[in-house]
Amino acid sequence: SSHFCTQREYKRFRREDAEGLSLLGAFWGEQKRRLDVGMGRFSLSGEDIARGILTLGGPGSGKTQGIILPAIADRMLAGHSLVVADPQGEITGHILKYAAVTRHLVVVHDPTSTIGPRYNLAEGIENVSDARAIADVLVPSAAGDNRFWTDSAAALLAACLIRFPNLGEIYNAMNDLKGLAQKLASKKDDAALLANSFIASVGSDGKVASNVVATLATALTGWASTDVRANTSASDFDAELVVEQPTVVVLTCPGRMRAVYASYLGATLRKLMLDLDTIGERNKGPLPVPVGVILDEFPTLGKLDSLVADVNLVRKRRISIMIGAQTKGQFHMIYGNEGTQALFTGLATQVIYGGCDADTAEFYSKASGTATTDANADDPNSHLRQRPLLTVDEVITPQVGNCTIFARYVEPGFATQVVLNARLTRFYERDDWKKRLSATKEVQPLLLERGISINLNIVEPVISSTPNSNTSESITTVPKPTLELAASVLMAKVAAETQKQTGGKVQAISMGEMRSKREKRMSAVKEVNP
Predict the structure, then answer these.
(1) pTM metric for this prediction
(2) What angle do CA 86, 88, 90 make, to 5 degrees?
(3) Do residues 353 and 60 lie in contact, with contact meaning Cβ atoms separated by under 8 Å?
(4) In terms of Cα–Cα distance, which of 363, 282, 352 is closest to 329?
(5) Helices (H) and strands (E) in the chain, counts
(6) pLDDT tens string 308-320
(7) 3-class state of residue 213 by DSSP
(8) What percent of the chain shows pLDDT beyond 70?
């Protein structure tokens, strides 16, 4: 059972950690005593945030200003790399302002954009495990009689991710069932085995294959767009970039297109997480820098239960997850009752804003456990009785502050879950960040540009003979187009177009220039600290 935090227990939340997160505000514990006197902060260690953070609050409750934006800004200031899912497009503008202060490289990936950096989900997928993890997000399993079709479509997509170079080619290949079956059966490998039933159906009457492809085509409707196929045909960034230098990867899309592309953002997030975990395994330990995964409006990203199930498995990699949502009911629609229960219990720190719905309040009232109180406080001989530590009314309307914090932690000789009431400082109320942002108003953020594609036409060499006055022989000159010259011309065009579209607010810089600058900085540091 939980209990209200005591002054003694709060001591651990006074210690700041460079790899952790500090929430500013006012915090109350047992008997409504103020616990943060003299500090005004609730500090979570790197181990605490690695166990996961969940925040629930309705529209206008303040969860974005009270938790999500401060977490992004403070972690960027600490030099951490971040992967942020912003399906509503509300956070991207704030991140660009923070990046002007911290000088992070910002990668804004929008599958519908024509100028932003590209990302190819199929790149580097060579085994069944990775392919199925991505396919399960893009084609979520349905309940009831339709489950057979969605599971078959996910298996077919997993096979195609191994065989084809990108999702655009997969979508185009579905126009010809026999051609698709021949392509999958061309080599006896994992892709051919995954697509066994599809290949067999095409070879017989083809009815099952047609229904499976129709289900898959419905899930990949967004790739009917030419811009989206081009934007997912290659990768301009990867997980290696996130750990090489302080970087913020923002996954977003226009609100009107969220229903179509939200699952793609979830699949991209899943792919980055798998790659980060692989980098950690390769290094036989944690990542070189802490990486925070911040997911606003998490339920809109599709079914990502596998990602949350990995919270406790990847925490040793210095990867932490923060999830924001509005109600518990949003999770029920996607994960069901048992899935929601497992997902919630996997996140150690949970912040619940007041004014929540009755279902959410009832869940946390039960989660708080029971407390023993006097039946009559005025009568010393009265009997004791049990009551919920937090009633439904006390969750909806906190007795002090505007939110309730559940914090679970384990120490060598002690383990518990404490409950606090809090009033978190909103980001626009913070004077420290007001000063930083005002000082960098004229500073432009560092944005990753879209990669360039160079198509050199094959030109027949032009042979010109020039007589030599000394030897009376002819000298043959063969002008050849150079890759470097073509690349520099195209880069100049990209930079000019970027300046034009952004009104001169964004400067384009090549990856080569960024790497050379980083090498110079690293060499300077080595000279100072041999």
Answers:
(1) 0.80
(2) 75
(3) no
(4) 363
(5) 22, 17
(6) 666 666 777 888 9
(7) helix
(8) 84
